UniProtKB/TrEMBL annotation:
GO terms for cellular component: cytoplasm. Coiled coil: none annotated. The lineage of its organism: Eukaryota, Metazoa, Chordata, Craniata, Vertebrata. This is DDHD domain containing 1. It comes from Mustela putorius furo (European domestic ferret). GO terms for molecular function: metal ion binding; phospholipase activity. Belongs to the PA-PLA1 family. InterPro entries: DDHD_dom, PA-PLA1. It comes from the Eukaryota.
């Protein structure tokens, strides 16, 4: 039952009626009906959201009347028409005229009065002087009172609620972690998450409307609860340019806190506890989430990416420092003593000292083993992270300064094991000054491969990201010299060719390989010249058997590649007649000759093919056509929250697990 709190006739009944709180907005908010307030469930909000009970609505706009007036009208209506059958058809003409029909009942309010012409024909009139004058004039002109100045009211909303109005079941939750600056603008992460949630709703309606599941975004506000140094930094801040200094203390100071061994653990524990609290709270309110295999992803921004990464991996510089000191101590203990004459008693005592140190070392190793096993048994987070999205992230710089260097495999495990997080994705704007790439930390030659460009949200039938071929940022940079007896002056070399625009990221690897090979065709010296000379002799009609044997020898180590489409373009010809065949022969074996184009940076397999990543990690937003790079450098770091492109990208990977069992299309380029 509902007890009208604004009527004021029976205040003692409010204490007797126990009304459960009502979940609204997909379970993100709760409504206290007795207090008339709405408040969020998963985060704190200072401003209370007022809630009113809508009973009487204005015709046309369907806006509810103020609750006090609505309650008074409702009580008067029930006293006159209780027990009568009300028409339930909402498709009737609600604005039909009632000319010539007198009011059967009237009720006076403070500034208005209400006339009932029938049970379902109710009109509200203003008692202001100007309204009375206008009403008198129009009635003398022959118009009715209702049609001249009355506002029709409806009891109940125009549409009835149905079971289909219930939101879809949440099968994927996303924790949104903020970076620096939260102290300066408390509640900013809540607003940013609301913008991201709104953008995701638009994308879901447009691209994922056929899904019966739902992705929910929850803000993780971890900064405001931390004490850190209290107000010590504020007390030592000079008063000159105080506004700028306070802004730096509230934003950039978080980076110094995190690099401090004294306060770092407090930041890590603050975020870790908040993540676990939100997950436990969500599971308690959605008991079927874990049973039905619900998934959890994390979207972190700026410094939040580094803290989240350290929580998942358990990286702790203090522990590493202690381990380094322990290893140094062991190394010093193993050093041989001075080779001098020692008495029997001194040597005996030294032997006992060695035995004691060896025993102490064994005990310390067992203690370290117990600590390590206890850490592995109790993970930092109560959930497995499905996707870890980094936005505007400096994580690569932190990892590089910690000694992470490129490896020889294309696995994500080199920086983040798959058993901890299934997928790592790094999103950044090309002009974001805080963002850095992660792929070159796994394979060095990916520094010359452009990141994957994120699709625009309004792109029709975009190519799936897993089928997008990598492309080079710049062709080979080796200096070349043109031989005098070579007549291929029209062939552009990789060095003399203009660098392709950064916005378009050049062509695919195959096409740039063609340009590089055409440039190598004009080289008269070196490995490229010899290769092309041998291919040229093999293409003539008067080739010898020795040349054929050499061609067969060169064919053997070349691995077969999938058939690729040859670009239809006019090829320059030379007097030697070898260019056509050499072009297509070397175009096929481009990936098998990486040392010709990139002798220093590439990592090769045993069959001399390029080592590729298991899956791409770096994804870059597209620049606008009229976008100023200088202005973007200022605004791009905070432009991810409301981006529809980012929302589509996030949902694409979150809904991806539902399509894994379907047959993948054949998109061989």
């Amino acid at each position: 039952g509902f007890c009208p709190r604004a009527a004021g006739h029976e205040p003692e009944m409010e204490e007797l009626v126990n009304i459960e709180r009502v979940c609204v907005r997909g379970g993100l908010y709760e409504v206290d009906v007795t207090q008339g307030e709405c408040y969020p469930v998963y985060w704190n909000q200072a401003d209370k959201i007022p809630v009113m009970r809508g009973q009487w609505f204005i015709d046309g706009t369907w806006q509810p009347l103020e609750e006090k007036e609505s309650n008074l009208i409702e009580q008067e209506h029930l006293s006159c028409f209780r027990g009568q059958q009300m028409q339930e058809n909402f498709d009737i003409e609600v604005s039909k005229s009632i000319d010539g029909k007198d009011a059967v009942h009237s009720f006076k309010l403070s500034r208005n009065h209400v006339d009932w012409h029938s049970m379902d024909e109710v009109y509200l009139y203003s008692d202001a002087t100007t309204s009375k004058i206008a009403r008198t004039v129009t009635q003398k002109l022959g118009f009715s009172k209702a049609s001249s100045s009355g506002t029709r009211l409806h009891r109940g909303y125009v549409e009835e609620a149905t079971l289909e109005d219930k939101p879809s079941q949440t099968t994927h939750i996303v924790f949104v972690v903020h970076g620096i600056g939260q102290k300066m603008d408390q509640g900013r992460i809540i607003k940013n998450t609301a913008m991201m949630r709104e953008a995701a709703r638009k994308i879901e309606e447009r691209h994922f409307s056929n899904h019966a599941t739902h992705v929910e975004f929850l803000p993780v506000e971890w900064r405001s609860k931390l004490t850190l140094d209290g107000d010590t930094v504020d007390s030592i801040t000079p008063d000159k340019v105080r506004g700028l200094r306070d802004m730096l203390n509230s934003s950039a100071m978080d980076i110094m806190y995190y690099t401090s061994p004294l306060y770092r653990d407090e930041l890590v524990k603050g975020l870790q506890q908040e993540l676990n609290r939100l997950y436990s709270l969500f599971c308690s309110r959605n008991p079927d989430f874990e049973e039905k295999g619900g998934k959890v992803s994390i979207v972190s921004h700026s410094l939040g990416c580094v803290i989240t990464y350290d929580i998942m991996t358990g990286w702790n510089p203090v522990r590493l420092y202690e381990q380094g000191l322990y290893e140094q101590l062991l190394q010093k203990e193993e050093e041989l003593p001075d080779e001098r004459w020692m008495s029997y008693e001194e040597r005996h005592l030294l032997d006992e000292l060695y035995i004691t140190k060896r025993r102490l070392r064994e005990i310390e190793e067992r203690l370290h083993g117990l600590k390590a096993s206890s850490m592995t048994q109790t993970p930092a987070l109560k959930f497995k992270v499905e996707n870890f999205f980094c936005m505007g992230s400096p994580l690569a710089v932190f990892l590089a300064l910690r000694g992470i260097r490129p490896g020889n495999t294309g696995s994500q495990d080199h920086i983040l094991p798959r058993e901890i997080c299934n997928r790592l994705l790094n999103i950044f704007h090309p002009t974001d000054p805080v963002a850095y790439r992660l792929e070159p930390l796994i394979l060095k030659h990916y520094s010359n491969i452009s990141p994957v460009q994120i699709h625009w949200y309004n792109t029709s039938n975009p190519l799936p990201y897993e089928y997008m071929k990598p492309s080079f940022l710049h062709p080979a940079k080796e200096p070349t010299s043109i031989s005098e007896n070579e007549g291929v002056s029209t062939v552009p070399s990789p060095v003399t060719s203009p660098v392709l625009s950064r916005r378009h990221y050049g062509e695919s690897i195959t096409n740039i390989g063609k340009a590089s090979i055409l440039g190598a065709a004009s080289i008269g010296k070196g490995l490229g010249g010899m290769l092309f000379s041998r291919f040229g002799r093999s293409s003539t009609s008067q080739a010898s058997e020795a040349s054929k044997d050499s061609i067969e020898d060169e064919k053997k180590p070349v691995a077969s590649l999938p058939t690729t489409t040859v670009a239809t373009q006019t090829l320059p010809h030379s007097s030697s007649g070898f260019l056509d065949s050499a072009y297509f022969r070397l175009q096929e074996s481009f990936f098998n000759l990486p040392q010709l184009l990139f002798p220093e940076n590439v990592m090769q397999n045993k069959d001399n093919t390029l080592v590729e990543l298991d899956h791409r990690i770096d994804f870059e937003l597209r620049e606008g056509l009229v976008e100023s790079r200088y202005w973007s450098a200022v605004t791009s770091h905070t432009a991810y929250w409301s981006s529809l492109d980012v929302a589509l990208f996030l949902l694409t990977f979150m809904y991806k697990h539902e399509h894994d069992n379907n047959a993948k299309p054949n998109l061989d380029p």
